[in-house]
């Protein structure tokens, strides 16, 4: 079975973000980088499938500058068989449509049975790439899955819906699957596997070579919204707190007259 | 290939920042293992620290087995025996991260550090294949039994005795060992005993052999979750093939393993101190008094800044030493008939550096956890807050792996001995310094110059001490202790400055913060250098000679103080903004 998993390197979400000088992206100085959380679920699910189906081959793909190789190595240490690094120093400025087109262009004719992606990236959050790849390849896509099973060319997945509902969905391979939080608990790469990953193939492909479409949208501005009046935290004795709360409710709201 | 720096060589020449290892030089694999460790600790160990410290049956073994599954026990074990055999930087990262886990760090270190390395470095083929694979998986838990009720620092005066059985197949061991980490859960011990009461030797002893018993669990101040017991040997039969290395060569095994053990203890301290600072910085941001977070008060800022600065210095020192050990181990060729000797001499080369970093890092940790409790105020004294555990757990690190006093003795003693053998050109260095002092001396204008001043003062005072006492200097502990402090100040300030320069040259992360921390560290340390040096010369000479020497010291220490307070405010600002240690 041939499997592809697409991952993205994103900043640690605990970082303090600033808008870059360009005004259309965040400033990347002094940021720590890691694997997009949703992609970790995708990698874990792909590795589990690989372990389930004998003689499987799992390729991990990532678009970005050289530093994304560190994150790709983590996927290799988690169990991917090989890596394809689509080298792009302008990755931050690419639109989802372009990225999807490049992935589809790469994956076309490679005979992947399943392509796993995260449901969205934590830094751009367009949630488009996986779905667009499926459309471009003309194959089904099951998005936002929280449970996954595969047997004999048939996929059965659970999707998370709003309002606490879930849906069971089936489809057949080839297909694209986008993964949501709660799907699984990603494994830690063990020390021996980290060392083995060093010896795995990591192929570099140029983004431009695969890029055959123009962007369909443009980011005009990235900005931090103006702060609305923040919450108030009252501290003190319970009795005194109650009095102050009543005063505030009387003065600033219509709850108490 | 570039020549390996000589042990202690940092004191003489200058070192190119490019030639030291720094945490900024971590490769992808180093960073990945650090991430795996962080997750393992956060998800598995920290939430169960209380259970572990309550000595819940089986928990330490369970954690060691889990650590084995992640490959965290086999970092020093060759691949063919079930390990990963990777560089010393990996082991340093593992030791650093585990440092915050108190009892677990001791269980881990006792098992795959000192309980394992004697076999890795000095075991023969048969011993390695019998024991190492089981250590890598924690199928067998190991422990290191050196200390005896009557012999701690004076380890070679051990009374445990080994006598060859009449049929020549066994050594019969009799004696007591005390304060043995992992004793209660161990399946095997590295035991030191004197063959016929004379030849100090190392043995691998199966813990389940008849006649081997352990005492009650010691009730300790800290590290409560690690098993510490006495071990008693009553006619314990040890197969002759379990003698490690050679009869009478136990001290070679013991002391060299201790060098590596000291390096790991220093790394443990760095990790524990970082955790203490993370907790304290977070607490100071959240705790309000007089309606403002206490992190905004000057005295708290100064504490946070000094904690971060000393951690940065220790971290720089520990990874520089880790780099030296890695390069040394990589260049050794133990394949010849004298392979073990090659390894022993290789490790011995950096004995001074291992002692230096152990003393500095453990005392840094003591300072950091103490200030950490202070920042927490009354809550820091309550066991519910992890800083209370860190405070107790830290205390032993200045006592074990060689007390800090023993390590202080080792530093100048080793250098004096090397000087006597021509391995450390003290006389030449002294001659050069005197020429410099008689000519036109220069003002020390930047932190790098001040580091040079500290190194010069060390050599000057060491030279003067030797001129005054000759070989008798080795009996003057008060002077030796101060010389050790000067050597530590030289090594730590230099390591910190070199790392900072290397980061700045590479336009690396947080270069400004690093420069601030390095500058603050160097300018506060040189004051300690000045004090220790003056105390030494005042006990060595009197009258006009003292006046002249005082003037020489003034020439060496000719620098203008800087505004430490505003530097610390900037450092504290960065720490509080992050809510944790950053570098």
Automatic annotation (TrEMBL), chain A:
Residues 23-214 form the Electron transfer flavoprotein alpha/beta-subunit N-terminal domain. GO terms for molecular function: electron transfer activity. This is Electron transfer flavoprotein subunit beta. Belongs to the ETF beta-subunit/FixA family. Keywords: Electron transport, Transport. It comes from Desulfopila aestuarii DSM 18488. SMART domains: ETF. Gene3D superfamilies: HUPs. InterPro entries: ETF_a/b_N, ETF_b, ETF_beta_N, Rossmann-like_a/b/a_fold. The keyword Signal does not apply.
UniProtKB/TrEMBL annotation, chain B:
Residues 27-139 form the Acyl-CoA dehydrogenase/oxidase N-terminal domain. GO terms for molecular function: acyl-CoA dehydrogenase activity; flavin adenine dinucleotide binding. Residues 143-236 form the Acyl-CoA oxidase/dehydrogenase middle domain. InterPro entries: Acyl-CoA-dh-like_C, Acyl-CoA_DH_CS, Acyl-CoA_Oxase/DH_mid-dom, Acyl-CoA_Oxase/DH_mid-dom_sf, AcylCo_DH-like_C, AcylCo_DH/oxidase_C, AcylCoA_DH/ox_N, AcylCoA_DH/ox_N_sf. Keywords: FAD, Flavoprotein, Oxidoreductase. The keyword Flavoprotein applies. Homotetramer. This is Acyl-CoA dehydrogenase. It comes from Desulfopila aestuarii DSM 18488.
């Amino acid at each position: 079975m041939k499997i592809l998993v697409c991952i993205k390197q994103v900043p640690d979400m605990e970082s303090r973000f600033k808008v870059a000088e360009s005004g259309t992206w965040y400033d990347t100085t002094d940021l720590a980088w890691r694997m997009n959380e949703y992609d970790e679920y995708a990698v874990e699910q792909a590795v589990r499938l690989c372990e389930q189906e004998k003689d499987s081959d799992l390729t991990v793909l990532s678009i970005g500058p050289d530093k994304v190789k560190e994150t790709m190595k983590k996927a290799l240490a988690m169990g991917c068989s090989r890596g394809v690094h689509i080298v792009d120093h302008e990755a931050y400025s690419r639109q989802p449509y372009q990225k999807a087109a490049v992935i589809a262009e790469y994956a076309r004719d490679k005979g992947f049975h399943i392509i796993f992606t995260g449901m969205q990236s934590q830094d751009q959050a367009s949630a488009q790439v996986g779905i667009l790849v499926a459309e471009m390849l003309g194959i089904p896509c099951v998005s936002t899955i929280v449970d996954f099973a595969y047997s004999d060319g048939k996929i059965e997945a659970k999707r998370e819906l709003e309002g606490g509902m879930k849906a069971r969905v089936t489809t057949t391979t080839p297909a694209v699957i986008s993964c949501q939080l709660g799907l699984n608990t990603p494994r830690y790469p063990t020390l021996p596997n980290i060392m083995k990953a060093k010896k795995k193939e990591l192929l570099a492909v140029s983004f431009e070579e695969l890029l055959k479409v123009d962007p369909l949208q443009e980011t005009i501005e990235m900005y931090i919204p103006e702060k609305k009046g923040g919450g108030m935290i009252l501290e003190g004795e319970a009795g005194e707190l109650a009095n102050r709360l009543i005063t505030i409710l009387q003065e600033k709201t219509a709850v108490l007259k | 290939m570039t020549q390996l720096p000589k042990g202690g060589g940092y004191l003489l020449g200058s070192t190119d920042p490019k030639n030291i290892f720094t945490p900024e030089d971590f490769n992808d694999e180093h960073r990945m293992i650090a991430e795996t460790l962080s997750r393992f600790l956060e998800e598995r160990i920290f939430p169960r620290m209380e259970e572990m410290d309550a000595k819940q049956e089986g928990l330490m073994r369970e954690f060691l087995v889990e650590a084995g599954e992640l490959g965290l026990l086999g970092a020093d074990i060759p691949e063919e025996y079930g390990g990963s055999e990777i560089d010393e930087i990996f082991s340093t990262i593992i030791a650093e991260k585990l440092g915050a886990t108190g009892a677990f760090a001791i269980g881990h270190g006792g098992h795959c550090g000192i309980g394992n390395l004697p076999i890795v470095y000095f075991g023969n083929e048969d011993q390695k294949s019998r024991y190492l694979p089981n250590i890598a998986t924690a199928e067998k838990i190991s422990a290191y039994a050196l200390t005896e009720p009557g012999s701690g620092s004076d380890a070679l005066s051990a009374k445990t005795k080994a006598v060859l059985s009449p049929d020549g197949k066994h050594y019969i061991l009799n004696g007591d060992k005390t304060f043995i980490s992992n004793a209660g859960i161990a399946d095997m011990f590295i035991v030191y005993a004197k063959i016929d009461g004379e030849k100090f030797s190392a043995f691998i002893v199966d813990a389940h052999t008849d006649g081997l018993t352990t005492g009650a669990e010691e009730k300790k101040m800290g590290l409560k979750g690690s098993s510490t017991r006495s071990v008693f040997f009553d006619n314990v039969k040890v197969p002759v093939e379990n003698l490690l290395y050679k009869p009478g060569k136990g001290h070679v095994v013991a002391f060299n393993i201790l060098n590596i053990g000291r390096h790991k203890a220093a790394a443990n301290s760095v990790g524990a101190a970082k955790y203490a600072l993370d907790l304290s910085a977070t607490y100071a941001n959240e705790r309000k008094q007089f309606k403002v977070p206490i992190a905004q008060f000057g005295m708290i800022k100064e504490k946070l800044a000094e904690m971060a600065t000393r951690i940065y210095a220790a971290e720089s020192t520990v990874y520089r030493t880790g780099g030296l050990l890695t390069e040394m181990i990589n260049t050794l060729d133990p394949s010849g008939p004298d392979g073990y000797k090659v390894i022993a001499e290789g490790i011995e080369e950096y004995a001074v550096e291992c002692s230096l970093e152990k003393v500095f890092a453990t005392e840094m940790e003591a300072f950091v956890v103490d200030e950490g409790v202070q920042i927490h105020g009354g809550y820091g004294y309550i066991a519910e807050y992890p800083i209370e555990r860190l405070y107790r757990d830290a205390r032993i690190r200045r006592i074990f792996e060689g007390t800090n006093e023993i390590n202080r003795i080792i530093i100048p003693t080793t250098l004096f001995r090397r000087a006597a053998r021509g391995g450390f050109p003290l006389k030449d260095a002294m001659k050069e310094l005197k020429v410099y002092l008689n000519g036109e001396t220069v003002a020390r204008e930047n932190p790098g110059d001040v580091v040079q001043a500290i190194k010069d003062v060390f050599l000057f005072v060491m030279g003067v001490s030797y001129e005054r006492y000759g070989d008798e200097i080795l009996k003057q502990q008060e002077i030796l202790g101060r010389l050790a402090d000067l050597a530590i100040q030289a090594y730590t300030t230099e390591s910190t400055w070199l790392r900072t320069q290397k980061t700045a040259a590479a336009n690396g992360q947080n270069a400004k913060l690093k420069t601030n921390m390095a500058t603050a560290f160097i300018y506060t340390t040189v004051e300690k250098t000045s004090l220790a040096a003056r105390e030494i010369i005042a006990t060595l000479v009197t009258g006009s000679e003292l006046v002249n020497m005082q003037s020489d010291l003034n020439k060496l220490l000719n620098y203008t103080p800087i505004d430490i307070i505003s530097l610390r405010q900037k450092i504290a600002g960065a720490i509080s903004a992050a809510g944790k240690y950053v570098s």
